[in-house]
Each structure stands twice: as structure tokens, then as C-alpha cells.
Amino acid sequence: MPWRGTDVRPLNLRPRALRPQLKRDPLGSMPMRIQPLLLTTAMLAATATDTTYAQRPRSISGLPSWALDTVGRLPPGQDAIRGVALNMTEQQVRSHLGVPDSVVKSYSEVIDSTTKLYYPNITVLLSRHGVEDIACSAVTCRLPNGIGVGSTLAQVVRALGRGHPGYRSGPSHSLFYYPERCDCWLEVSFDEHERVFNLSLVNDNS
């Protein structure tokens, strides 16, 4: 859930020229007239650093408008692909998917040491915190409600609701869904026939 925005500019807060104020507050920390100004500045700075995804420019979607939403909230209980959810351990992943075809250990500056498990048409990325990313394009890739590879756009919208087009620079043929209590997202990707060809669950480590 790519990305924090930095395009919010604080208002012009330059005060009018004032004569020096010598009166201090009871604690003697600073001139009392300066306190409201500093408080306002701090509040605006906090707002600028807390820019939400909704303030970023959205992707131009190649999907019909009836499938799109400005929020894309993922329904509860649909944040797993073939039983694999974010933050699961490697042992839990293997209990759902079995023994991987190959295992690759590497290092990322963002999430430190990583392990990639490769299955036929499924890739699972783990850090020391658990699953960070799962990409699944096998015909067996399903959400708990049965939506998965091969499902039509209409079936996805009926089951999950309308999705967000995302924040990529180019045209999007995906719907993004954001769980309520997770800095992460589900991406449902569609082919030219508007059928699902890939499901991805991703933790936002940006």
C-alpha cells in the first residue's frame, strides 16, 4: 500500500513585524506571543509529513469506471492467497504450499536479510519478520472467498467491491485493495480479456 507524498506545502506563516515582547509565560520558557505561532507551524509540518495515499495522483486505469473506487477497502478475512498471509513464518508457508522448488537467500537495504521461496508460478519473499510479499499466478491461486486466477472482473467486483487503480506512473490494469489495519495491499491484475492472471499481497516497506 509503492510512496508517501511530499507535495503538501504549508501556508505562508511569516508574522507581521512586532516590537520585542519581553513578557514571558509563568515558566519563563519563551515569549507568550511566539507560542501560538510555533504551535501552528508544528501542526502544519505534521500534516505535511502525514500525507495519505489519497493525496497522491492515481494511475490512469485501463479498466472500466464501474470497477473503480477512490478507497479500495479490502473486505475482512480476504488477506491471504492459498492460505498464505503477510507476516507468516517460513514454516507456516511450507505448511500451506509444501517444499519449494528452490530457496534463495539475499540481502535488502530496506528489510535486511531475505529469503525467497520459489514454487511453480508462486514466489514468496520473507524477511526476519515473516512474509513480505507473495505473487501468485498459478490456477490454484485463490483468496479465501474463491476469487483467483481466471476470475472475471465482474466476479472480483461482486466479491471484493470496487478497487483502487493504484499509484503507478503508467496505465494500470490492476485493482488494489487495502486492509483496514495494515500498511499493505492486495493487487489483482487483469489480462486483456479482463480476467485475473495474478494475485499479489505486499507489505509497504518504503
Architecture overview:
The protein folds into 2 domains: 1-56, no CATH class; 65-203, Pathogenesis-related Protein p14a (3-Layer(aba) Sandwich), CATH 3.40.33. It contains 3 helices and 9 strands. The chain is globular, with a radius of gyration of 23 Å. 23% of the residues are buried. The strands form 2 sheets. Strands 3-4-5-6-9-8-7 form a 7-stranded antiparallel sheet, covered by helices on one side. Strands 1-2 form a two-stranded antiparallel ribbon. The longest helix is centred in the first third of the chain and has 16 residues, at 34-49. It has 206 residues and is of the alpha+beta class.
Short description:
Helices cover 16% and strands 25% of the residues. The protein is built from three helices and nine strands; from the N terminus they run αββαββββαβββ. It has helices at 34-49, 90-97, 153-160, and strands at residues 80-81, 84-85, 102-108, 112-119, 122-127, 130-136, 174-177, 184-190, 196-203.
